[in-house]
Amino acid sequence: MPSKTYSCETCPGFCCSYDEIFLTDADLARLGEHLSTDAEGVITRFTKYGMYKGKSRYPLMLKHKADKHFGTICTFFDTDLRRCTIYDARPAACRDYPHGPKCGYFEFLQFERRLQDDDTYVAVT
């Protein structure tokens, strides 16, 4: 795979604002170990339920909290530092993003920062 053309270190966390950050059983186990709890503890404290085939429990998704830039953002996102607080234990959906060497939001962000002449500008869509 070609090398990536984006930097998560300079991004304000747009992908973390996605409402549907799905969790697998492996994600629950990894998060439980990281947070010193079990899968049920993770489910109870940090997830919300989606609707799938008429069932309200699955798929499980991470809860959100308020965010000044994107409205809401993942409960594990530090809104002051603009960083993931569980990076080493993050879900597979987060590990796989953006599914290739380019991130569309990062390219948009870089364009807007050049246009605004502001390296800290947060572009919202």
Report on this structure.
By secondary structure, this protein is an alpha+beta fold. The protein has a domain of 81 residues. The protein contains four helices and six strands; from the N terminus they run ααββββββαα. Strands 1-2 form a two-stranded antiparallel sheet. A hairpin with a 4-residue loop joins strand 5 and strand 6. Helix 1 crosses helix 2. The longest helix has 13 residues. It is elongated and about 45 Å long. The protein starts with 24 loop residues before the first helix and ends in a 9-residue tail after the last helix. The model has no long low-confidence stretch (mean pLDDT 90).
Summarize the SSE layout with pairings.
Blueprint: H1 25-34, H2 39-46, E1 47-49, E2 60-62, E3 64-67, E4 71-74, E5 77-78, E6 83-84, H3 92-96, H4 104-116
Antiparallel strand pairs: 1-2, 3-4, 5-6
Helix pairs in contact: 1-2
Strand order of the largest sheet: 1-2
- The shape is elongated
What is the multimeric organization of the chains shown? single chain
Number of strands: 6
- Number of contiguous helices: 4
What is the averaged pLDDT score?
Answer: 90
Query: For the CA atoms, what is the radius of gyration?
Result: 16 Å
- Class by alpha and beta content: alpha+beta
Low-confidence stretches: none
Head-to-tail CA distance between termini:
29 Å
Give the amount of beta strand, in percent.
Answer: 5-15%
Task: Report the order of strands and helices.
Answer: HHEEEEEEHH
Q: Biggest sheet, in brief?
A: 2 strands, antiparallel
Helix content: 25-40%
